[in-house]
Amino acid sequence: MEAIQEKAKLADERIQQLKSLIGTIGTRQLDPEIYINVLQEENTRLKARVQNLVDEMVTLENQRGVTQQYDFVNKTPKASTQSTAQPEKPVEVAQPVTKAAAPAAAAAAASSDQQDTKDKKEKKKKVTKEEKPAKPVANTAIDITRFDLRVGKIVSVEKHPDADSLYVEQIDVGEEKPRTVCSGLVKHLQINDLNQKLCIVLCNLKPAKMRGITSEAMVMCASTPDKVEILEPSSDCKPGDRIECEGYNCSSPDAQIKKELSDQILPDMTTNDKGEATFKGVLWKVANGKGAVKSKTLVNVPIK
């Protein structure tokens, strides 16, 4: 394409020279025969250049898949033979090219290609920008909506091999495999008080190593300095059932929370005078109407 433009520029310069020569006629003596010979020679040269430009333009258009609609040799329109494999974009019909118009036609073709490319890029950029999903608004509340609380079933319990105060439990919370949880309950509960029991588990607490074993959740308990009891849901609950709290949207908890955040939320969690778990006085309830969560005997005490 650059070669075509360069040749077109040279042709334009030659035409300007001829125009200048014609303008000087009458101001100086010039043999008419010589002038005619010069014009004929220049005309032959221009025709050859125009034909070269036309040939190059046709070659480029054929490479782009543009069907020629004009026979430049016989100077007659061609019958339309557009292939079914042609692109859906309408084909621009090439107009008969004169010796003066050929450079302009080549330049117009190049300009059209550049504009098509620019339009496609702009359209793609606009679609990508429009389809990009909006970022969800982060939950900054310091309340129960940040907690992923679920019903769990303790499927096995054993003492921690390197910590006298810790149990290591395997707890089913409705996932592919049980989670490993370390709980400091040895001084308060026997293994039989925990094994095969339903409980409530905080599932999105950041995992932490406890004497070499990574704890992946926390068992929620009603707690006093002298006594601790696990919070238990009704017997018809299943591992993985979610805990809800009226007035709070608990459907989208954080993927993970740090202990520093949980320590800010836990002080608002207590049992009421019936031993039922609450957040700021509002009852915890198992999803799908499966009832409240209770401590066996501990009332009006913190939940930890």
UniProtKB/TrEMBL annotation:
Residues 143-244 form the TRNA-binding domain. It holds the Pfam family tRNA_bind. Residues 77-134 are annotated as: Disordered. Residues 1-63 form a coiled coil. Residues 100-114 have a biased composition (Low complexity). Gene3D superfamilies: Nucleic acid-binding proteins. It is found in: Cytoplasm. One of its GO terms (molecular function) is tRNA binding. Residues 77-86 have a biased composition (Polar residues). Keywords: Coiled coil, Cytoplasm, Protein biosynthesis, RNA-binding, tRNA-binding. One of its GO terms (biological process) is translation. One of its GO terms (cellular component) is cytoplasm. It comes from the Eukaryota. PANTHER family: AMINOACYL TRNA SYNTHASE COMPLEX-INTERACTING MULTIFUNCTIONAL PROTEIN 1, TRNA-AMINOACYLATION COFACTOR ARC1 FAMILY MEMBER. This is tRNA-binding domain-containing protein. The lineage of its organism: Eukaryota, Metazoa, Spiralia, Gnathifera, Rotifera.
